Amino acid sequence: MVLPPGFESDTPDQVCKLKRSLYGLKQASRQWNAKLTKALQVDGFQQSSADPSLFTKAVDNSFIALLIYVDDILVAGTDSKQIQGLKQMLDDSFKIKDLGQLNYFLGIEAIRSPNGLNLCQRKYTLDILQENGFLDAKPAKTPCSQSHKLTSTDGILLHKPEIFRRLVGKLLYLTNTRPDIAYAVQQLSQYVDKPRDTQLAAAHRVLRYLKGSPGKGLFYSSASQIKLQGFSDSDWANCTETRKSITGYCIYLGNSLVSWKTKKQATVSKSSSEAEYRALASTFCEIQWLIYLLTDLNIQCSSPIALFCDNRSAVAIGENHVFHERTKHI
Do 179 and 247 share a domain, yes or no? Predict the structure, then answer.
């Protein structure tokens, strides 16, 4: 390690030997994760293969799940004594701070009740509205206009594109609890390279929509069934410039929404059936990942999982792969 400026030394070309990772170095996060993982595994925790940030431990009839985001940790379990022992172990190893019951985590507000858990980002939404001057704006009923389509040629280039990029980045994080704006934000995120005033106006439309319901979020019922079901859809050749289709899906665990996505497909589909079938494949991959995740949480999905699609041709291809020889390229 090169000596810091202002440090005087009699020996020329002297360097310092680095014996430990310092906070802020590129290697620090990796070293911290490796040390925390080793400490948890020594304590009997198993690292999930589906999500490396999830650790689980089953002892007799008790079960503990631990979720890590850098140095922020969520703990859930069935035995309070086991949880207290875990916190004591972490405090002995790393000197942690116990923040009590889950109320606020990474910008997400959690409200617990006997009926279930409600997640929202109300404070985060109000901060975005205040930063962009939309606290007193007139609310909009929808996040985007159905008739107007964005292009990379309409409008005037913005003099300060970083304003648009910062806004889209914050809206992307807001989709963690607001699936209703996922499609609108997906459309806006395609133009962060060279944004124009028309795209900024569309982003302001999303802010006006959020103004009408800043506290809207997700509710997870405590009486929900452990049953997965997925819904898949596709908009064929929606992009007027690339003619690529858009995949959209949502997956429910009982009556609770647990996964959703809106994303442009990587290739051009020659028919609506092909676009729908690609969306089915993406939804199936997500369902398979959720099955692995539930297995790590000691939850077995014994019943078949229903996957819904509104395209008969795509359903026929999914039921009979051999008969449709023209779908080999998919």
Answer: no
Identity of the residue numbered 118: N
State the angle between helix axes of 28-42 and 80-94 in degrees (0 to 180), rounded to the nearest 10.
140
Residue 166: give the domain boundaries. 119-212
State the angle between helix axes of 272-296 and 312-319 in degrees (0 to 180), rounded to the nearest 10. 60
Rounded Cα–Cα distance for residues 94 and 88 (Å) = 10
Total count of domains within the chain: 3
- The CATH number of the domain where 298 resides is what? 3.10.20.370
Calpha distance 243→45 (Å, rounded): 48
- Residues 132, 205 share a domain: yes
Examine residue 108 and state whether it is found in any structural domain, yes or no: no
Distance CA 274, CA 163 (A): 38
Q: Contact, 137 vs 207, CB < 8 A? A: yes
Average pLDDT of the segment spanning 3-29? 73
- Indicate the length of the chain as a whole number: 330
Q: What sign results for the dihedral spanned by CA atoms 123, 77, 70, 86?
A: positive
Pairing of strands 306-308, 228-235: parallel
Check: pTM over 0.85? Answer yes or no.
no
CB atoms within 10 A of CB 207: 23
What mean pLDDT is predicted for residues 150-163? 88
Task: Give the pLDDT of residue 144.
Answer: 87
Amino acid of residue 212: G
Identify the CA nearest to 324 among candidates 271, 247, 287, 249.
Answer: 271
Q: Is residue 103 part of a domain?
A: no
pLDDT at 252 over 90: yes
**Percent of the chain whose pLDDT exceeds 70:** 95
Task: Judge contact between 205 and 280, C-beta under 8 A.
Answer: no
> Residue for token digits 């008790």?
62
